[in-house]
Amino acid sequence: MARDREDQDPRPNAVTIRDVARAASVSISTVSHVLSGKRPTSGATRQRVEDVIQRLGYRPNRVAQSLVWRRPFALGLIIPDIRNPYFPAFALGAEDRVRDRGYTLVLGNSEYDPEREESYLELVRSQQLAGAIYCLGDEMSPILAHIQRAVEEGLAVVLVHSPMASVPTVCADNRQGGRLAAQHILELGHRQIGIISALPLDEGMADREAGFLDVLRETGMGVDRTAVPSMYGNHQIEGGHQATTELLEHAPQLTAIFVLNDLMALGALEAARASGRRVPDDVSIIGFDNIPFAALANPPLTTVGQPIRQLGEQAADLLLRVIEDGVAPVEASTQPNVLLPNELIVRGSTAPPPV
After folding, report:
1. How far is residue 233's CA from residue 242's CA, in Å, rounded to a whole number?
2. Which tens digit of pLDDT belongs to each residue from 139-188?
3. Which of 25, 30, 192, 321 is most buried by its number of CB atoms within 10 A?
4. Which of 22, 48, 69 is the last residue before a domain boundary?
5. Is 190 a domain residue?
6. Is the whole-model pTM more than 0.85?
């Protein structure tokens, strides 16, 4: 009965699995095994089936296969803010990977709402999604406890930017990125330095600031809030503008500002100009992420570049590994963790301090 379901493809003029089996001189079940990879198939047979699939242009009917194999072929990507251009670049990397493996990627925009985040987790629990990639924007989100419990139950969930030892995780090395920013600013000669962070505060941003302050501390500089004043935005351009305006009013002597994401750094550029300061002649500004708009800013934004698309690819690869190979939900140390380095991208928004 299940075989009949898969063979009855409702798409007009579609090549069916029966067509593939007939052309390859194998059974329908052999074609299914080649497609699913769940049972071993001899190399010559597999190659013959794959050649026929390519020649005929066969595309599996995922709805039918979901019925046959009793599992979904959709994966969730949960992001906190679809307006941030970081996440479309991330999604492109993830979507390329899952599409190559025959899955569909479903995008969920949580708007930093824990209830929305949990609703997508329920889709995984109910097996409407085979698994999910979570990009969280708040390290205090209650969804973290639910995600940990879901992984312990054997569900396929991968975290991005919020490392947890008990959950499969993909991250850029944010602490290393913060160190890169500090080294660049110090090498230019700056010593009057401020920071623009954001609320809600995620662990990635906290690590960026920690790495930055580590380098200042290693050079003998003070790193308390008087020595390195900070203001908080809202992750967006307007938040960076407001926070930078307040920071420069509070500490007008600053010659450099480290902004913990590029969207806020774009707002910081405008706020500095509005205060009568020239960037970078009077104040240098460095961001973090290397979103597509960073190179188009006026002046082009110096930033710490994350491998955004590669992060999406790695997150998808890890999720598919968990789904298809299985990762035992036991000891925390058994959960896989991928950590990718950042790179400094020097553009026109940083220069030595004014003499």
Report:
1. 7
2. 677 888 899 888 888 889 999 986 677 889 999 999 999 999 999 999 99
3. 30
4. 69
5. yes
6. no
